[in-house]
Amino acid sequence: MVQNTSQASKRLDFVKDDIQQLKDDHLYQELVSFSGKQGTEITIDGKKVLNFSANNYLGLTDHPTIVKAAKQAIDDYGVGAGAVRTIIGTMDIHQELERRLAAYKHTEATLTLQSGFTANMAAIPPIMGEGDAIISDALNHASIIDAVRLTKGVTKKIYQHADMNDLETQLKATKSARRRLVVTDGVFSMDGDLAPLPDIVALCEQYDAVLMVDDAHASGVFGKNGRGTTDHFNLNGRVDIQVGTLSKAIGSVGGYVASTQAMRDLMINKARPLLFSTSHPPSVVMSCLAAIDLLEKDSSLIDKLWYNTRYFKAGMKNIGLPADSESPIVPVIVGESEKAQELSRRLFEEGIYVRAIVYPTVAMDKARVRVMINATHTQAQLDRAIETFQKVGKELGLI
What we know:
By secondary structure, the protein is α/β, with parallel strands linked by helices. It has 2 domains: 29-61 and 299-395, Aspartate Aminotransferase, domain 1 (Alpha-Beta Complex), CATH 3.90.1150.10; 81-280, Type I PLP-dependent aspartate aminotransferase-like (Major domain) (Aspartate Aminotransferase, domain 2, 3-Layer(aba) Sandwich). The chain contains 15 helices and 13 strands. The strands form 3 sheets. The protein has a 7-stranded mixed sheet with strand order 3-9-8-7-6-4-5, sandwiched between helices. The chain has a 3-stranded mixed sheet with strand order 1-2-11. The protein has a 3-stranded antiparallel sheet with strand order 10-13-12, covered by helices on one side. Helix 3 (64-77) runs antiparallel to helix 12 and helix 4 (92-105) runs parallel beside helix 12 (282-297).
């Protein structure tokens, strides 16, 4: 490899210092690559391990029906859409997916985006501006935080996580705003807890605030046939904007905003992620349609996901490790980043892949490994993971 000694590279030498600081603070992470399909057993650096870090809740990334639909789409439509949606990048199948998602979510319309991250970017700035107020849960996902930051001229308020008294305080404090938007995750990705959505809906209705719920980790997991937390809490028709993902339980990639037809029309005209990004390739669209078909017809994968979740949590509780969450996201919080990294490393050595989650993804003193349960984990795999957590947990003084 030729050593780059250009002046430009020398001017970037400060980056090396930043990297060293991350390493000194035990916050540095490298990309981990695996070979083969995303599944419950993967190969990393030639080592076969059980995978407990994937958002592949229902195992749809390699489901035969989904794979067949994606392959057929390439034959029928090619490998790309070739343009942004507003020029000539909208195929009939894009429109069909959005119609199906709207029916699935019990809303008037949906708009699909390239990711769940960009879905939040597309939903918030077009409807909020000068004189408005956005009130956001303190533990909301980074995509919500960034979308709020990018919205010009608004008053930004943060309420303590899931604290309804504080939310009401912020609603009262912003009563003079032209419009108010309350934003919350449906399922919080790091702790696996649910937003108290019935209470949030009641407050938004009382104070005439628009409510937006990001259901990335609830899509395909909660509600009838995986419709999300709005359906789970029987609040259909009372949540103004629902953001969902196609990248986790659905097994493909992308996000969507489910709301009114007027909201869809406005985003088509003002949402920058839509206006300046090429639309989903046909294989993605058709795989998502196939996944929606599967979910609407059969809930057995969701039922298995929840069986596995209950089984794993009970096993972790029996060995003395906390497994308190309301979802298939099971955080094992150890506090210090160095300890979380060590726990992840030792689990890997024993054949269990669980990624350490450290600052800035979580608070500095809340480092953890985050176990993600999938429907396709076998009972033997769950037992092995529990036994390994017991062995390594004792070694590191966690038990």
